[in-house]
Amino acid sequence: MKRLVAYLRVSTDGQVEHGFGLDIQRQSIEKWASREGHRIAVWAADEGVSGSNGFETREGLYNALEAVSAGLVDGLVVYSLDRLARKLTAQEAALAKVWDCGGLVYSVEQHGLIPEDDPDDPMRTAIRQMRGVFAQLERSMITKRLRDGKRVKAEAGGHLGGTAPFGYDVTDEGALVENATEQETLRRARLLRSEGHSLRAVCRLLDGEGRPPKGGGWWHHSRLSSALRRPAGAADRVSR
Hints:
By secondary structure, the protein is an alpha/beta fold. The protein has helices at residues 13-18, 22-36, 59-69, 88-100, 122-155, 180-194, 199-208, 221-229; strands at 3-10, 39-47, 75-78, 104-107, 112-113, 168-170, 176-178. The strands form 2 sheets. The protein has a 5-stranded mixed beta sheet, sandwiched between helices. A two-stranded antiparallel sheet has the order 6-7. Helix 6 (180-194) packs across helix 7 and helix 7 (199-208) crosses helix 8.
């Protein structure tokens, strides 16, 4: 039987709030430890912390590694190696830290003990690292697809979340719809600009006419410039 520190991590605040991710990792580790005859002596977690962050900003991982370094436990267990870090280089650094302290590393998803690097068996290290490379590539491809999807949606006039741009409101379904009052303000601002007024002059005129920016207050030239950058025809590509 080994005494272990279990390390958990989820990346987003939403996963923390709804318990998704942390609970699954904890339950899986508990079942694995019971089946294998090990005891979880310490639990450490980073909630809502990206795996790309350095060790110094991840208190949970720091505490887990310190437990191994201080000899409080025999090793570290994670649900999967990517919980240690998203980047292969950081993942390898965490493994090396545990091994340098004489500790063991276990991964539930990788079916138990992660063998320490052996200079007489370089293939074992290469296989582990190749798995890490492909896992990192898969995550990067997912991120790229999401980014590309957002770009296509934006080009089609869709809304990517957050506050709606000036001239529009967001429906409960997440679609953009025109705000008649703000659209009239945009038409007025474009007319004033076409007559040769500067952005600052247009801001003063809009304020004087009682045409406030979204949320109230006073117009600022940079804020007005941003609102006017959205093409006038963009309304044709969003819900009415």
